[in-house]
């Protein structure tokens, strides 16, 4: 990218240019700085080219990328290629040091970037450490994902040692060490031998220990599980969040649209078309039955896709899913029986 600037005719001296470059919502560079240019009054105009985006990585963040693939493992968001390009929206590095695991975490946020160690690609039963930017400083705290919510620990420093943290160029940077073997609320984690999916989430925080729920598009899971003594470079998996959208659309179509119309027809349209039939039945009844059948079909599709999203019934049970899941199971059974009896 190039820029053209016309200097004031009376100005002479040294100038440099700063810019913010946005590629997309989650990919941007702050404080892109040009070389210093000497301007004399005889100059009328000149053009300058911005430096490559990778040069805008701060020295602190560049240190996080150093050693990826050789001395430590690295997980890059949105994909593994961003690690080599030094352009990750979020980056997690890990390295076994004695009986502990050393982590380095960076993320584009004004709140928190959290790292979860999970047995699958969904929330639930995960050991989480969040690095939080508040009041011009960065601190880390230990928490746990219980079901689909995050719960702070009584001792937020349990099992972790915060090393350092900073906020540079719109990114939270922090380093901490985590005990290799620990038990949290009856769940055991062995970071030295077990394999984990890495979860990364970005969001806002009320304090170091109280973090707000992240948006659906602000949580990423690694495409494969890994041991934390690995030096591989891995990236985030393809998102399945579109399944949540399909689930929501189908449930709205079933219970807001088709059922409402079916009830309305049954209540007010019985006297209409008194001598007409459709498929051998009164018109109102045929429409009523067809809409109820559509409701069941929509619900079945929603039922299947959400189970695909959470990786099956076992995942729902393990994550102590809220009553919403159980009610959905009840209604699909009750609706099927009701519709079948019509």
Characterization of this structure:
There is one protein chain. With 342 residues, the protein is an alpha+beta fold. The chain has three domains: 2-55, no CATH class; 58-235, Immunoglobulin-like (Sandwich); 242-341, no CATH class. It has six helices and 23 strands. The chain has helices spanning 59-65, 81-85, 242-268, 283-309, 313-318, 323-341; strands spanning 2-6, 13-15, 18-24, 27-33, 37-39, 45-49, 73-77, 90-97, 100-108, 112-118, 126-134, 137-146, 149-152, 160-168, 171-179, 181-184, 187-190, 195-203, 219-221, 226-227, 233-235, 277-278, 281-282. The strands form seven sheets. Strands 10, 11, 12, 13, 18, 19 and 20 form a seven-stranded antiparallel sheet that branches. Strand 14 and strand 15 form a beta hairpin. The longest helix is centred in the C-terminal third of the chain and has 27 residues, at 242-268. The protein is extended.
Annotate the secondary structure layout.
Blueprint: E1 2-6, E2 13-15, E3 18-24, E4 27-33, E5 37-39, E6 45-49, H1 59-65, E7 73-77, H2 81-85, E8 90-97, E9 100-108, E10 112-118, E11 126-134, E12 137-146, E13 149-152, E14 160-168, E15 171-179, E16 181-184, E17 187-190, E18 195-203, E19 219-221, E20 226-227, E21 233-235, H3 242-268, E22 277-278, E23 281-282, H4 283-309, H5 313-318, H6 323-341
Parallel strand pairs: 7-21
Antiparallel strand pairs: 1-6, 2-5, 3-4, 7-8, 8-9, 9-15, 10-11, 10-18, 11-12, 12-13, 14-15, 16-17, 18-19, 18-20, 22-23
């Amino acid at each position: 990218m190039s820029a053209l600037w016309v200097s004031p005719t009376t100005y002479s001296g040294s100038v440099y240019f700063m810019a913010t470059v946005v590629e997309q919502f989650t990919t941007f560079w702050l404080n892109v700085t040009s070389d210093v240019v000497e301007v004399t009054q005889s100059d009328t105009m000149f053009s300058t080219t911005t430096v490559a985006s990778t040069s805008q990585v701060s020295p602190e963040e560049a240190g996080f990328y150093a050693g990826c693939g050789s001395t430590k493992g690295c997980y890059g968001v949105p994909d593994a290629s961003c690690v080599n390009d030094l352009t990750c929206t979020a980056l997690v590095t890990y390295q076994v040091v004695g009986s502990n695991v050393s982590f380095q975490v960076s993320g584009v946020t004004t709140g928190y970037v959290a790292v979860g160690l999970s047995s699958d690609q969904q929330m639930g039963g995960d050991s989480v450490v969040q690095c939080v930017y508040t009041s011009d400083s960065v601190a880390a705290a230990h928490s746990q994902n219980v079901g689909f919510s995050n719960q702070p620990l009584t001792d937020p420093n349990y099992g972790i040692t915060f090393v350092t943290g900073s906020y540079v160029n719109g990114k939270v940077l922090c380093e901490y060490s985590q005990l290799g073997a620990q038990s949290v609320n009856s769940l055991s984690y062995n970071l030295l031998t077990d394999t984990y999916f890495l979860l990364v989430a970005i969001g806002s925080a009320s304090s170091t220990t109280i973090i707000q729920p992240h948006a659906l598009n602000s949580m990423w899971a690694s495409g494969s599980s890994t041991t934390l003594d690995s030096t591989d470079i891995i990236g985030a998996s393809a998102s399945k969040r579109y399944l949540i959208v399909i689930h929501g659309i189908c449930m709205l179509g079933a219970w807001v649209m088709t059922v409402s119309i079916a009830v309305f027809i049954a209540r007010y349209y019985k006297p209409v078309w008194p001598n007409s039939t459709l498929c051998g039945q009164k018109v109102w009844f045929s429409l009523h039955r067809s809409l109820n059948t559509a409701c069941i079909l929509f619900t079945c599709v929603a039922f299947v896709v959400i189970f695909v999203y959470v990786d099956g019934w076992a995942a729902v049970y393990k994550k102590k899913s809220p009553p919403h899941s159980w009610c959905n199971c009840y209604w699909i059974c009750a609706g099927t029986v009701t519709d079948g009896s019509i």
